[in-house]
Specification:
The protein has 107 residues and is an all-alpha fold. The protein has a domain of 70 residues. Helices cover 59% and strands 0% of the residues. Helix 2 runs antiparallel to helix 3 and helix 2 packs across helix 5. The longest helix is centred in the middle third of the chain and has 18 residues. The protein starts with a helix and ends in an 11-residue tail after the last helix.
């Protein structure tokens, strides 16, 4: 359009050039959700905690609300079913996430 350079491009500096890099927000959500699933399996299946107690433990470990935990676990039901089918033991879980305490605390 006629006059665009003189009236717009020359008067107003262009926004900063984007580098093309993706934002790092939400980068590790899949990894967190997988760890959340492993910990849910641990609390529910190995430690035999009640459902509410499992959610409370996960809330303290992952700093998430109960609703978010339920929502994220619903997306990972296949993984949880696989862990149940394989009857994964604490030693198996420790291989994947060795920084967690996998000691079974029976009630």
């Amino acid at each position: 359009m006629r006059g665009k350079n003189a009236l717009y491009n020359d008067l107003f500096p262009s926004p900063l050039e984007t580098t093309g890099k993706k934002s790092q927000r939400n980068t590790f959500i899949d990894e967190r959700d997988e760890a959340l699933s492993y910990r849910y399996y641990y609390h529910a299946h190995l430690c035999r905690l009640r459902y509410e107690e499992c959610l409370q433990s996960l809330k303290l470990e992952f700093f998430l609300s109960h609703n978010v935990i339920i929502q994220r676990l619903n997306l990972k039901t296949d993984l949880i079913k696989l862990l149940v089918a394989e009857n994964a033991q604490p030693a198996d879980l420790r291989k994947k996430y060795n920084h967690y305490n996998w000691t079974v605390m029976n009630r």
